[in-house]
């Protein structure tokens, strides 16, 4: 007997840890600092969005196996902030046999949505959730914080990056991979033990691909006016020739691919391409919507007012 009943798999409730309370960028505290968050009208410093990405590999590897780590893509729109002490659970629709795309999401214990996302297996991902969202953006008008940016602007130079187990990841990410693995919501020996990994080398966890892609972002020198506080509003991580390996050197190239504005934010979308050290073979990429809070920029209402 066969049924067309849609099936859903889920993981357990997890309480992710806040590791960015001491984060600094542009010489000031970030939204993840409780005092800064409260100043901007939030109840506490939120846990960074990609932390929740760790909830999904157990589900997606159940659906697509090892290929998920090599050619998988998660494309997420963040919906509600999570603070330390709140529990979160991941869900995934089980696709039909042979399908390479499905819907995934995360909720708090009380059902409050945390994120919505598409998950897919390449090379043909179709149109991801963020590609759909980006295509629907209206052209930004009269930007102030982002007035000096333009679509097509590339980073100032290539960036060479690496993530060794004990390497401190800088002011943006004031911790090491080993420290993250001590508290990560979903553990795997593949993240730390070369011998157990199917690729013969420890792999960088999905949430830490975001760290690898962002911690050297200052080198891009995108002229965002400040000081101003931002947050991640949308994020996509795509493996092309994955996974990425612990201790491996990669070359990063960045480009601004969209600019947008809402009542509370000005946003710039950056596509970060991750290549091998020689810059010849692309291994992965990240699409990230940096939403900069207007209220965090001194005098925004006055400076943005029409003459």
Distinctive features:
two-stranded antiparallel sheet, 307 residues, Thiol Ester Dehydrase, Chain A
Total beta strand runs: 12
User: What's the mean pLDDT score?
Assistant: 91
The helix/strand series, from N terminus to C terminus, equals: EEEHHHEEEEHEHHEEEEH
Number of helices: 7
Reported CATH architecture = Roll
CATH topology description? Thiol Ester Dehydrase, Chain A
How many structurally independent domains? 1
Largest sheet: 10 strands, antiparallel
Can you describe what's shown?
The chain is α+β, with helices and mostly antiparallel strands. The protein has a single domain (8-304), classed as Thiol Ester Dehydrase, Chain A (Roll). Helices cover 15% and strands 28% of the residues. The strands form 2 sheets. It has a 10-stranded antiparallel β-sheet, sandwiched between helices. The model has no long low-confidence stretch (mean pLDDT 91).
Blueprint of the fold:
Layout (H helix, E strand, L loop, with lengths): L7 E3 L13 E2 L2 E2 L4 H6 L17 H8 L2 H5 E7 L9 E6 L7 E8 L4 E9 L7 H7 L23 E3 L15 H5 L24 H9 L15 E10 L10 E12 L3 E12 L5 E12 L6 H5 L3
Antiparallel strand pairs: 1-5, 2-3, 4-7, 4-9, 5-6, 6-7, 8-10, 9-12, 10-11, 11-12
Task: Tell me briefly what this model is.
This protein is α+β, with helices and mostly antiparallel strands and 307 residues long.
């Amino acid at each position: 007997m066969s049924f067309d009943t849609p099936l859903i798999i889920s993981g357990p409730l997890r309480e992710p840890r806040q590791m960015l309370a001491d984060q600094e960028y542009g010489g000031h505290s970030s939204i993840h600092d409780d005092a800064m968050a409260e100043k901007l009208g939030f109840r506490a410093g939120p846990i960074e969005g990609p932390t929740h990405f760790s909830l999904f590999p157990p589900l997606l590897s159940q659906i697509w196996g090892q290929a998920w780590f090599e050619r998988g893509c998660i494309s997420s729109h963040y919906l509600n902030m999570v603070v330390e002490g709140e529990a979160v659970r991941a869900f995934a629709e089980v696709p039909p046999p042979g399908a390479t795309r499905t819907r995934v999401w995360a909720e708090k214990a009380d059902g409050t949505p945390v994120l919505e996302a598409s998950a897919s297996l390449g090379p043909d991902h179709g149109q991801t959730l963020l590609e759909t969202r980006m295509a629907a953006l209206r052209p930004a008008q009269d930007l102030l914080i982002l007035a000096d940016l333009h679509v097509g602007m590339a980073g100032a130079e290539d960036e060479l990056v690496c993530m060794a187990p004990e390497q401190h990841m800088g002011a943006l990410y004031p911790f090491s991979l080993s420290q993250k693995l001590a508290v990560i919501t979903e553990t795997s020996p593949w993240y730390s033990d070369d011998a157990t990994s199917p690729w013969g080398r420890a792999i960088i966890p999905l949430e830490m691909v975001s760290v690898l892609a962002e911690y050297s972002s200052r080198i891009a020198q995108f002229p965002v006016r400040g000081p101003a506080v931002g947050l991640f509003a949308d994020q996509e991580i795509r493996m092309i020739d994955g996974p990425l390996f612990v201790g491996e050197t990669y070359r990063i190239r960045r480009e601004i691919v969209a600019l947008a504005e809402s009542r509370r934010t000005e946003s710039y979308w950056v596509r970060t391409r991750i290549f091998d050290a020689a810059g010849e073979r692309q291994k992965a990429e990240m699409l990230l919507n940096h939403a900069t809070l207007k209220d965090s920029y001194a005098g925004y209402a006055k400076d943005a007012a029409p003459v």
